[in-house]
Structure prediction request, 382 residues.
Amino acid sequence: MGSGGHATERDNSGNEVIKRAPSSKPPFTLGDIKKAIPPHCFNRSLLRSSSYLFVDLFFSFFFYYVAAKFIVPLSTPLSYVAWPVYWVLQGSVQMGLWVIGHECGHQAFSDYTWLNDTIGYFLHTGMLAPYFSWKYSHRRHHSNTSSLENDESFVPKKKSALNSSARLLNTPPGRLFRLVVLCTIGWLLYICFNVSGRKYEKFANHFDPKSPIYSDRERFQIFLTDVGLVVASYGLYKVALAQGVIWLLMVYFAPLVIVYGFLVVITWLHHTHPSLPHYDSTEWNWLRGALSTIDRDYGAFNTILHHITDTHVAHHLFFTIPHYNAMEATKAIKPILKEYYQFDDTPIIKAMWREATECFFVEADKGDENTTKGVYWFNNKM
Prediction:
């Protein structure tokens, strides 16, 4: 892996041992980290960014064509094999498109804000995602990462805040239920009901321009987001009338389940690991929070998903670096971050079960006077 901190190690018996990430104030600054990165990594090439966009669009439309032309007429049992293959292929490519839309929201696609927002708006709206709404809530996540009070997504519960149903959810059937929900409707629960998000004094979601998530200057763009989603939904309604609801479900909506399953799992695993600290307001600062994330290895999907998976630490530190420079930037920052850089190559399915098991709530260590009270760690011991 090179320089950096491996979040999991093996003891002499071959058993997995979780090594906590450092939680103290880092001995380096953000400026120190930036100096280590070659300056060209910060350059946003419109031509190069567009090439990734066009390749993803080509494959997405190609898979749509194959599905409509060849898979729809297939008889069973061949269709039982062809449809899942199509869903995974199309969903993976569209997750790549979703990542490009995410880069547009971070202004990492090009030097032109209007172009970034235009491309991001149409990409995300085409996948029924609220572009501006998520752009702004996601920006707040980047501004408050790992803050127990102010982070915007995947905010863990403190042990003291658990309710009576917690014991059921902390059993193997409960963990399986949580993972199924996470992979299927987790995205909808978050954008519609702010599930796992920051707690606000009033109801918050990603569609209400008056939602407490947004400032007054952002509300018109939330309205534009809603308009785009209404237009897209009407278009899908017309497609359903022409082709049938089942056709639309199989060709369009099923791959979206893959996309949003990917999105939620990737985001959750970036911020959920037994090695990662969270902070309350007495200990949190931006750099410590940004470092409380972890890179993961998704194998071939690293490339298909434009390395959102294995360059997430660098992304949280410098979110305008385009994905095609993020690997080089990650390599450059490891010698500076040392143990503050966290990486885990545990197979993803195994990691999902382990994190669902071990990362049920957070609590501060109970110890001597030297224990840092404002630093919270994942645990599952009720």
Summary: The longest strand covers residues 375-379. Residues 78-105 form the longest helix (28 residues). The CA atoms of residues 241 and 347 lie 43 Å apart.
